[in-house]
Amino acid sequence: MHIFSLHHTSARMERIESKALAQILTSGRKTIVAILAMATTATWTMAQTSSFALGYCDGTSLAKSGYTSNKSNAWLSGAIFIPSGTINTYAGNTVKAIRAGINSRQNIDSLRVWIRSSLDGENLAEGLVTTKTTPKLSSNWNEVALATPFDIQADNHNGLYIGYSIHQKASSDGLSVVTPGESNGLFVLLPAADGSTATWKDRSQEGVLSIQALVYGDNIPQYDLSLKNVNMPVYYSMEEGKLTVSGTVKNIAAADIKGFNVRMTIDGSDKTATGHADVNVARGATADFSIELNPSVKVTGTTHATITVDNPDGKNDANPTDNTLQAEFTTVSRYFTHNVLTEEFTTEGCGNCPEMARRIEEALQDERFGNGRIVNVSRHSGYGEDWLTQPCDRDYLWFFEKDAQGQTDDFAPALMIDRSTAINGDGKTVVVAPQNASTDYLKAYWNSMMNIPALVSVGINTRYDSNRLTVNVSGEKSELQASNPHLCVLLVEDNIKAHNQTNYYSGPSGSDFVHQHVVRAYNSTWGEPVEWDGNSYSYQCSFDIDKSWKQADMKVVAFIYNYNSENHSDCAVLNSAMTDMPSAGTDGIGQTVIPTTTEADNATAEYFTLSGMKVLSTQKGKGIYIVKKNGKTYKSAIVK
Fold it and tell me: β-strands 573-580, 485-493: how paired?
């Protein structure tokens, strides 16, 4: 519920002519201060009086286009619902007018505002303005006085509907609905052109009606917060012991506030985690908050929680019925940094593909995506093939949807991001079309994905000698739910000069174009099954390095995904890693988490810092070390 504070005055009218009252309350945007100018013609008793606008909209914005009906000579109606818990906090005050915003006056001759206890019920109070009244109906905000002011009683147990109806001579564009939507913010009654019976529809998810009830009195609540939404992280790590709770509150009372408490109660537990949000929320305003709490959950799995905001500026909240929302998260023993895999379908015959490549490279310049957080691989398929196409690129056309005839409907440019169906939002499609992958979209989606921790780690160690690269991939898992995890290892090369790239956009083409993230070698098309040793795994494979490949431009990529040969929508990538290919006779190490070495390994290995200082195994902290073991020297990462 949004209450927008209009003003405060120091006068309460004890007697005034009804005609003068109607003129004042229908004076468009004039405030109640205009009443003071009439003090010479009316008798006043001085007292503290406040006025507030009760509604879900901000009281200023109108829709660019309104809700319509093609039926001539008909009434169109819209309403909002004020729950009993909210309306009853205003008991003892009076609604004297309603502000109604219409998008256009064309073909509209009358506007009636009203208050009802049910959508189809009688008007408990109403007011009317037309094209012939003074003031006239306006194509904007209309402040319409109620013929009889509505006194708010303390027994509105079912809540109240605040609405307006417009009469149209022909098709109109009047009902103004603004976004975002909010529960109880929009009910509409639109007559059908064919004369069929119209019924009220709850369309609150589409927006909120441009309407406000103007409430006057001495009993406006001073402190009243409403919790509008709450966001929880996907996972809570018992090892980390904290999570971030964020959300949005509205201040629907008279006083500005500077902070409030946020409480989290876990279902089935008598413990409550509490923190204080130092957030300024002006009266009538909306504000976001974010706070770290420790729910102290000791059982893994889905966790249900109740989030409550209260104690605004240390005061009691006037209406606690709208201070609480339910939320859930998944409790795990631990989690890992999540790097996001992006697979780009591209070929030299695709004239739109250079533009997609430009967007990717532009998005990668964002500092958030450095240090291997975004792992890119190009698949040279989707729009024919070219000289860089690998057999696995061809096989990966399986990820595209089928057309009506059951044929693969492949295209390029196209993207898969962690092979997730969330990118299209339909629950099945993992390949996104270029119109859904602008630079800003990529950055936003990458950021949201990599902020969801992974439940498996991927670490890469490499050894290159005699034109042969040996790759060791290892990691750990927590409560991983994948039914059939597979591990893919690839070599990719950057800065490959094109043979003849088509380009429909401005930029390099032909042999001037340069390919990035091209697959040169891989362990197998669908990877190899992960073999677990408890919660750990390790895997080794080797590649012969072609002398034509530029080793300085090559990277090693590894990723774990769930392989379901019957359903491409169930092949989500669980985590990935990328590291530069080492030069001959040297070792390399990936940038993601490597599992802690075992006790047996510690017993036979010597550890040195990169500066050559020997470190006891019991003194090792998080970092990269030179390891001497079994007559060999290599680098290793230790994570604790």
Answer: unpaired
